[in-house]
């Protein structure tokens, strides 16, 4: 990986803050989101065939507002992400650097078999602060292998979770784990329907689902357990914000995922034992619905 204008050094365990502005500067940046110097992140090691801007957004939005995402044509598997401020960049680096990602879906059918031979397994993400202060608009982005644009804006995307101080305070920052918390799903959703969502997106489905007792008729929530953390990360990238239809409603429910603070889940599919999520996750549900 070559350093140069706009690129940062891959981060090791002891230098993830390299190049970061002082914390005092971070506090000042929060008042003007999406245009703060020091808020651009370099992401290396992405699956070049399966990753697109929306999948990267689905992961990065767990740690801060996402403004823009741009893939680099000259560096395969590399993208630049502009976040709301340097604090969000630091959160991403601290939690996602060196994380292993499983397959985030099937490779595009238009690709030849030989194009797929080097992208059939897991990928390690490497994150770094960029030297660019912010990303400029790209008026004519090139197409990614799945035909989606290589540049997208998310400034007005309603799935950003840190849009105001109240929303931001409800998020509980967690590193990747093999257990996901899901919420904003149809009130009567079943375990089988949830598992089918992941199958429809061509990712490994959870091996266990735990539906929490509903506290209202508005939506449902619970936990999903995967065999490995890499499978859970891939599931977030592919299925965070997946639409789930519900009988009797005009619009589908937009399922929201995040990494759970729970580290074990003893139940298996079909088990009727009850459990509750942590207070932080419950507060986040109420805010994001």
TrEMBL record:
The keyword Transcription regulation does not apply. Residues 39-116 form the RRM domain. The keyword RNA-binding applies. Pfam families: RRM_10 (PF22976), RRM_5 (PF13893). CDD domains: RRM3_hnRNPL_like, RRM4_hnRNPL_like. Residues 1-20, 266-289 are annotated as: Disordered. Residues 266-278 have a biased composition (Polar residues). Residues 280-289 have a biased composition (Basic and acidic residues). One of its GO terms (molecular function) is RNA binding. Keywords: RNA-binding. This is RRM domain-containing protein.
């Amino acid at each position: 990986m070559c350093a140069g204008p706009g690129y940062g050094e891959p981060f090791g365990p002891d230098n993830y803050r390299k190049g970061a502005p002082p914390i005092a500067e971070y506090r000042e940046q929060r008042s003007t989101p999406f245009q703060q110097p020091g808020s651009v992140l370099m992401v290396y090691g992405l699956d070049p065939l399966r990753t697109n801007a929306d999948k990267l957004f689905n992961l990065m939005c767990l740690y801060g507002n996402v403004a823009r995402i741009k893939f680099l044509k000259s560096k395969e598997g590399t993208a630049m992400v502009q976040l709301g401020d340097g604090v969000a960049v630091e959160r991403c680096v601290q939690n996602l650097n060196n994380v292993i990602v499983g397959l985030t879906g099937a490779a595009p059918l238009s690709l030849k078999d030989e194009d797929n031979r080097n992208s059939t397994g897991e990928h390690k993400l490497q994150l770094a602060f960029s030297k660019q202060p912010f990303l400029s608009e790209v008026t004519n982005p090139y197409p990614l292998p799945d035909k989606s644009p290589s540049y997208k804006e998310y400034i007005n995307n309603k799935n950003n979770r840190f849009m105001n101080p109240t929303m931001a305070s409800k998020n509980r920052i967690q590193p990747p784990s093999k257990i996901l918390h899901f919420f904003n799903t149809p009130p009567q959703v079943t375990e089988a329907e949830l598992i089918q969502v992941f199958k429809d997106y061509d990712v490994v489905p959870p091996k266990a689902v735990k539906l929490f007792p509903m506290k209202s008729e508005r939506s449902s929530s619970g936990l999903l357990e995967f065999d490995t953390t890499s499978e859970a990360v891939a599931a977030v990238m592919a299925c965070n914000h997946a639409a789930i239809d519900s009988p009797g409603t005009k619009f589908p429910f937009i399922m929201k995922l995040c990494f759970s603070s729970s580290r074990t889940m003893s139940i298996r599919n079909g088990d009727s034992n009850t459990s509750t999520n942590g207070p932080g996750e419950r507060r986040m549900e109420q805010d994001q619905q």
